[in-house]
Amino acid sequence: PLAPGEVIAAQSGAFERDPQESSTTDEELSRAGSPGSRGGGSSTTPDYGEKRLPQALIIGVKKGGTRALLEAIRAHPDVRAVGTEPHFFDRNYEKGLEWYRNVMPKTLEGQITMEKTPSYFVTNEAPRRIHSMAKDTKLIVVVRNPVTRAISDYTQTLSKKPEIPTFEVLAFKNRTLGLIDASWSAIRIGIYALHLENWLQYFPLSQILFVSGERLITDPAGEMAKVQDFLGLKRVVTEKHFYFNKTKGFPCLKKPEDSSAPRCLGKSKGRTHPKIDPDVIQRLRKFYKPFNVMFYQMTGQDFQWEQEESDK
Questions:
Q1: Strands 50-51, 106-107: parallel, antiparallel or unpaired by DSSP?
Q2: Active-site residue among 63, 106, 116, 138?
Q3: Predicted pLDDT at 185
Q4: CA 251/CA 233 separation, integer angstroms
Q5: Is 30 annotated as contributing to ligand binding?
Q6: Fold of 50-299
Q7: What is the per-residue pLDDT across 198-221, written as a single tens digit (0 to 9) for each?
Q8: Mind listing the pLDDT tens digit for each residue in 141-164?
Q9: Annotated binding-site residue? 84
């Protein structure tokens, strides 16, 4: 397998979008930004205030836990967020900033406008485009063990296209030689160091918060405390907002006062992963290890993905 530098050189071309990535229609977006929609936060968006460009973005990563994070932060009264993914900085940029602003919910003075589109993190043009909108934009990246993330990504695609080849077939350029196919988006997204390099050309590390997708499950309140501090918000979303759903195997938000049911992620979350050949998982761990180490060095955070694997 190629050394990290070689893979980065080999893979530095434009990122190909996975056709299975969720896409949002214009109609959904116009509904998201309209008064009274659920797009605006923990309760219905009031028909007052004004639409502003977002001051904070959840930019990645796909299948990392971005939806869970968005739902949790929307429970904060000082946050208004679009429920759907606008995909402005990757797919809709030519529509212009006024279109983007119009998609946003109305906010009052002191409230933060947010959106999440996980594919931004792997889009070459996104850092420059966001920087030209507002260079002080706060960025949040939810990362997860790249091996688990790749399998989760594949599982999502498989649920939509049952006829696709097995994970093992897609993961290798050459199975006999153990050559991983880093051009397959499910693998490539998890080379976090490669993508982060692009962002650091435009934004200082202090403007990017890295959230652990694993800890978002084991300690959601702890991770949310970091998110609220980073956004300059009071710590309103705490332990009392979460309960553990044994069926799904992850935490859910307790019901807000103004709603009749707890907010749990949809049935597409927490899907059972297909059984993958242990040898393939082992090879993927070896492939990702140098990139993970590089990512820990770049961010100053050790996500202990190798540690996790040895515990199993």
A1: antiparallel
A2: 63
A3: 97
A4: 22
A5: no
A6: Rossmann fold (3.40.50)
A7: 999 999 999 999 999 999 999 999
A8: 999 999 999 999 999 999 999 999
A9: no
- The amino acid occupying position 233 is L
Q: Is 63 a catalytic residue?
A: yes
87 is in an annotated binding site: no
Helices (H) and strands (E) in the chain, counts: 13, 11
What gap in Å lies between CA 244 and CA 246, rounded to an integer? Answer: 6
Q: What is the CA radius of gyration of the chain?
A: 19
Please tell me whether 285 is known to bind a ligand. no
- Residue 272 marked ligand-binding: yes
Domain extent listing, the chain: 50-299
**Residues 6+ positions from 138 with CB-CB distance below 8 Å:** 55, 56, 57, 207, 209, 230, 231
Burial class (CB in 10 A: 0-12, 13-18, 19+), 194: buried
Query: How many residues are given for the chain?
Result: 312
Give the three-state DSSP class for 249: coil
